Amino acid sequence: MAVARCFVNFSPKLKQALAWNLQQRIAESHRLTCCLSHKKHYSSATKSSFDEVYRRSINKPEDFWAEAAQNLVWDKKWKKVLDNSNPPFTRWFVGGELNTCYNAVDRHVEVGNGGQYAIIYDSPVTKHVQKITYRELLKEVSRFAGVLQKLGVKKGDRVLIYMPMIPQAIVAMLATARLGAIHSLVFGGFAARELAVRIEHAKPKVIVSANCGVEPGRIVSYKPMLDGALSQISFRPKACVIYNRPGFEIAPLKRGLDYDYNLEMSDSKMTDCVPVSATDPVYILYTSGTTGQPKAVVRPSGGHAVVLKWSMWNIYGMKPQEVWWAASDLGWVVGHSYICYGPLLNGNTTVLFEGKPVGTPDPGVYFRILKEHNVAGMFLAPTALRAINRDDPEAYYGKKYMPLPIFRAMFVAGEHCDVETMHWAKKAFGCPVLDNWWQTETGWPITSTCVGLGMSLHPTPGVTGKPVPGWNVMVVKQGDKTKEADDVELGDIVVKLPLPPGAFSTLWDNDHRFKHTYFSKIEGYYDTMDSGYRDKDGYIAVMSRTDDVINVAGHRLSTGALEEAITECAEIAEAAVVGVPDSIKGEIPLGLCVRKTGVKLSDEEVVQMVIKHVREAIGPVASFKLAVLVPKLPKTRSGKIARNTIAAMAAGKPFKIPVTIEDESVYPAIKLALQKIGYAKDPQ
Ligand code: COA
Ligand code: AMP
User: Fold this and answer.
1) Which ligand 2 atom sits nearest the alpha carbon of residue 435?
2) Is the pTM of this model over 0.90?
3) What is the mean pLDDT of residues 70-89?
4) What CATH code is carried by the domain that includes residue 671?
């Protein structure tokens, strides 16, 4: 009775949180019972449940997502689950209000889970491990929200975060979301100019950065990069908050602009969550398109929180309180969704790893993390597996950590995973290795093996799973986009509208580009710009991009942006960039450059200058180390560079010269130049 009376006095928000917690515990005990009886981990689902759940998500999307949304705490319930009256500007949970930070942090503390670890920060590059409970995280986040608020950040303002893989980066993300502001993270491997372009476009009120990042063998000085970026543009943020990592050179602060993170935190007050509309952005994130123009996807708060929470069990089979590790960077979409928000919304412990698959200190480090931190599920890019395989094919360094009794499954994404790598990883780590396909735009997987929904843990090798509930995927013929491709026929992959919750709702400051870039190929469909096929069992394989985007070590790069950087060199008249196969990174960029007449430098000097300039302009992330000089580029009569023919020639694959090529006599000279650097080999 006393308990009941006490419950009556609780706020509606706390009641929702408690009800959710109770539901989780009931579901948990059900799963545990199933686990015991089936001696399997993902056994609360039956084989038929995936098909049934998928059908319901497509036929009754409103009921389906409204049910999933009940697993969050809302400040105000939505009036309408789906408003699709103005496609492609789909709006989910219209009228609803919530705070993402509350759902990711406060809620767990309020229901009594404050003592659980929220973050395990493992940094082999600094030889440091730190475990942070939800209670500690709440304190840090709400105080940093106070810092941002004092600097003038309000609901809807942008906060740009340019930081290495340290807990303070997650704190800055959550604190921004706490105030209902919008964060924009920039990956540390970008150079000052790329940072400048993003700052100018996002117009952040505050920038949060650090003195440095630590890459194997070198310190990456973030603060000079930030200063350099600001010196290139006229836009000024109101303030820059700089976190000085202990043990490294302290970044000098500029009076009137820069603020010291620790100093500001020392007298900051705990600051409460600001509810936002479900359709308000929680973040924007820049990604590569076909040109160098900045393009930032807008992630709506409500749909984002609903689907990420939903995906942790249904796709990845993660129960609350288990340890999850996404070995990516917070600056990429994977880092947003599955290092920060997904696991925290689900009440998991998330591993924040500052290191590399090899060399920090050896190829056993991934095995160590899995064992030492009792990781149950992980996410990584195939490049990381290829790097471990290259350095330690027998997984000798990992053996001392085997077996991994808690570890259940490894999920790969970000780039095509070759079957050989997948087989190797299965054997080395002793678990299923499951591919899933998604994009910055989608924010969560379009296709996957949904282990929580009972899908087979042994899909046909080479596929990326089946369309995930919510994603109505079609593969259309490349010649006739009105028709579906036949089984196993290569086609363009599109998704029928409406896109599910959590997908991007527009491009920041550019509704027009959003509509015309992604939705004009076939009316009523989202163009993924990926090609692939569907097999007879409904599995999807994703093969390559249909636009001028290449994928280097799971990093998406615009060939257009690289070409722009090359032609900035005074010696170069024009350039074409294509992706060529690489045994570790999947693909690497290759630049074909036409030198200007009258340039006095030797060919080798020009090539080295181009490589140096691209690294300075775009950043090390481009991995731009291959360039050749050619007399002319192959162009169509309308002036378009025939990149696909260059890429095929470089890879030693057969190709047809399009009839529209203006001058086909350019090809022999290109072939010769490529052969000199070991490409364009004749087929054996
Ligand atoms: N700050 C500064 N420089 C960075 C950086 C950072 N945060 N991250 C990478 N770099 C640098 C590297 O040091 C390297 O420099 P180098 O040319 O001097 O050697 C260069 O950028 C290329 O890095 P990368 O290709 O990423 O190789 P890596 O050895 O640093 O990392 C992986 C290998 C596999 C860990 C990394 O490529 C990775 O995590 N890829 C997956 C990304 C992902 O999750 N994609 C999913 C889609 S969002
Ligand atoms: P990004 O937006 O940086 O995450 O890159 C998205 C692109 O990476 C997709 O459009 C695909 O081309 C590629 N990609 C992501 N996941 C996969 C996968 N599992 N298989 C093949 N390609 C993938």
Assistant:
1) 19
2) yes
3) 98
4) 3.30.300.30
